[in-house]
Design a protein that fits this description.
Blueprint lengths: L4 E4 L7 E6 L10 H10 L3 E6 L3 E2 L6 E2 L8 H26 L6 E6 L1 H8 L10 E5 L15 E7 L8 H12 L3 E7 L8 H12 L23
Parallel strand pairs: 2-3, 2-6, 6-7, 7-8, 8-9
Antiparallel strand pairs: 1-3, 4-5
Length: 228
């Protein structure tokens, strides 16, 4: 059975719940350092690095859905089939932490980011905030769950998941009236490095801008933030 890692559990009632979701072929231990930094910044948060439920197709680690022979066409169905287990996992941790939807933050890297983003399609919100690092939507949504803020982070040198996926998704959600921030880091690759984690903490500590595409760093020659 997959083993998630509880990184922080406050002695008193938790003010927030942070759930971290790793990439395909990895495991819950991979995001423990991120969780430890979040714990230092949010000392009253309940923080869990969640392990995906299925063994990876590629010999090590775990996955939410198979990426073997994945295409733009079949990815949507694979994510749809994996989503009930994802939702059930989030709700189980909310129950254990005694934290409601509004105070829940889903943080995903790569495939974990895909699952977190796709969960915003639900008619009812699953979390108050979703942070996607080096991720994408399986398919751009036609609407976004009300009350959910989405934070995007992506390295411009990402050779696994093109950063243009984040730009496209951020523009799209903003056009739908959703609340978002987006940070493109010009020197980062397919990773959740220290700079991204620092930005993540800053975004989560600050009030949420309304319908704004945040610092799209390196996204254009001028690298100027674009406000929507």
């Amino acid at each position: 059975m997959p083993t998630s890692v509880t990184i922080a559990r406050p002695e008193s009632q938790a003010e927030q719940l942070f759930l971290l979701f790793h990439g395909v072929g990895s495991n819950a231990q991979d995001l423990v350092p991120m969780g430890q930094r979040l714990s230092a910044a949010f000392p009253r948060a309940f923080i869990v690095s969640v392990q995906a439920p299925y063994l990876s197709d590629f010999g090590s680690g775990f996955q939410w859905f198979s990426v073997r022979d994945v295409t733009e066409g079949n990815r949507v169905q694979r994510v749809r089939e994996a989503m009930p287990a994802f939702v059930e996992t989030v709700q189980a941790w909310q129950k254990q932490a005694h934290v409601d939807v509004a105070r829940t933050v889903l943080i995903g890297f790569s495939q974990g980011a895909i699952m977190a983003l796709e969960s915003t399609r639900n008619a009812g919100p699953l979390a108050g905030r979703v942070a996607a690092i080096a991720g994408r939507f399986a398919q751009l949504p036609t609407k976004i769950a009300p009350g959910t803020v989405v934070h995007f982070f992506h390295g411009k040198r990402d050779l696994v998941m093109p950063y243009t996926r984040t730009l496209e998704a951020a523009e799209h959600i903003a056009a739908l009236g959703g609340d978002i921030t987006a940070d493109i880091l010009p020197l980062a690759g397919h990773e959740a490095n220290a700079e991204i984690i620092t930005l993540l903490i800053e975004r989560l500590q600050n009030p949420v801008p309304m319908r704004r595409l945040g610092d799209a760093r390196g996204a254009s020659p001028s690298a100027e933030p674009k406000k929507l």
